Amino acid sequence: MSSTTELPTPAVEDVTDPKEIHDRGYVVLCWDDPVNLMPYVTHVFRQVFGWDRERAEKHMREVHEEGKSVLVQENFEKAEFYVHELQKYSLTATLEPSE
Question: 3-state secondary structure string, the chain?
Fold first, then answer.
């Protein structure tokens, strides 16, 4: 008589490919600050993103009234580029993974 013993199946962890993290997208946020004037923020948005005045003013108002605005959703490299561009104009900008 032979008895067979079942071995437990090992748990398999999900491994996240670093490329997948970057491909999920990131949002670029601009935060309110006590330094930059509203017309200046509108000007910067138009320069960096090429937006028309209406769209730039909409986001400027969100920053001013709500404390922040989600400006764009891009891949990691492009989002990081936009953050650096906004920071060159002395705006407070960050990027976060999109949800």
Answer: CCCCCCCCCCCCCCCCCHHHHHHCCEEEEEECCCCCCHHHHHHHHHHHHCCCHHHHHHHHHHHHHHCEEEEEEECHHHHHHHHHHHHHCCCEEEEEECC
